[in-house]
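Action item from last meeting closed. Structure (338 res):
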């Protein structure tokens, strides 16, 4: 059984996609197309039915679950965004990012030579330099939440300066929050200009645009905000800050994934998806991976195009891996993150 699982674990790399060729370069954005935005329609009941059936229709067979769980680890933005964060906590998080799965578990599956590490470490600006130093030589980028996270209501010049300061401190990825009022009042030109300014301030750093979908009122608003963010040059669109009452949900993810697909079909540019907030169980992470595979294709199942923003999730993934190996669950405290 272990030998079979090992072989399948080594198959975690995405298979070639049958999708039409797309542009390889980073999404540069396009001029704002208001007619496209106005024409957007979302059938909420159909979206919810589809999202409800996905976990039942699409499941990972037991012999493949280890491979998928390890894939989920490599797509994780390991995150700490608490008011009581300390340099010590951030350094411990970075140590876990370097070795997210205990060596004895990887050895048990015969895959200790695989480069299993998380996609990024996400922190507040104040801890960017600490994280950069702790991750030096690992190849793991530091992502900084910016622009007055989580509300995003600071004056625009301050938000742009925060982006520049995080990039100067060594952040290679910037997670920004939009002004929700632009969406709620239909000011698509203002939203476009805001995200465009964020993109320019990021320079070469990856721009992940947090839509805070739980505060956008309707699925149609989610779809329209997704498109405007991509038109303005977003590299990723992200569901939530993790601080809203409602964070990442599969119906919202489905709407965003279809907006990404529509943007790709129209422009040829690929944009990533990042669900964040409330994803704590390995099963939930697998549901997201299966949804993305169904809607966007296997090519999206890599760090350049899909991330999961979470902290507690890694603990459950590691417990599930140990169960597959030993038939027993360890206590959660065996995998402390901070």
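Sequence:
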């Amino acid at each position: 059984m272990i030998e079979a699982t090992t072989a399948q674990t080594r198959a975690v790399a995405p298979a070639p996609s049958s999708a039409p060729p797309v542009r390889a370069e980073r999404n540069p954005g396009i001029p704002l197309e208001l007619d496209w935005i106005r024409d957007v329609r979302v059938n909420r009941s159909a979206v919810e039915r589809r999202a409800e059936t996905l976990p039942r229709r699409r499941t990972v067979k037991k012999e493949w679950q280890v491979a998928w769980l390890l894939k989920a680890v490599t797509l994780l933005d390991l995150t700490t965004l608490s008011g009581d964060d300390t340099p010590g906590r951030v350094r411990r998080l970075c140590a876990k990012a370097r070795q997210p799965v205990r060596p004895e578990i990887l050895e048990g599956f015969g895959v200790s030579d695989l480069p299993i590490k998380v996609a990024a470490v996400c922190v507040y600006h104040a801890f960017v330099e600490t994280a950069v130093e702790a991750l030096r030589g690992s190849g793991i980028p530091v992502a900084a939440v910016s622009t007055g996270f989580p509300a995003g209501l600071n004056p625009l010049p301050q938000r742009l300066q925060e982006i520049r300061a995080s990039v100067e401190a060594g952040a290679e990825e910037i997670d920004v929050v939009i002004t929700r009022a632009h969406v709620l009042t239909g000011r698509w030109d203002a939203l476009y200009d805001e995200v465009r300014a964020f993109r320019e301030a990021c320079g070469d750093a990856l721009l992940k645009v947090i839509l805070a979908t739980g505060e956008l009122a309707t699925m149609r608003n989610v779809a329209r905000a997704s498109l405007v963010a991509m038109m303005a040059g977003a590299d990723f669109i992200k569901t939530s800050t993790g601080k809203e009452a409602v964070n990442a949900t599969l119906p919202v993810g489905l709407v965003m994934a279809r907006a990404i697909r529509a943007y790709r079909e129209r422009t040829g540019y690929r944009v990533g998806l990042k669900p964040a907030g409330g994803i704590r169980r390995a099963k939930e992470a697998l549901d997201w991976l299966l949804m993305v595979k169904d809607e966007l294709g296997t090519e999206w199942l890599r760090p350049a195009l899909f991330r999961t923003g979470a902290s507690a999730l890694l603990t459950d993934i590691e417990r599930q891996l140990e169960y597959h190996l030993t038939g027993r669950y360890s206590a959660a405290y065996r995998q402390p993150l901070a």
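Note appended to the action item: Residues 250-267 form the longest helix (18 residues).
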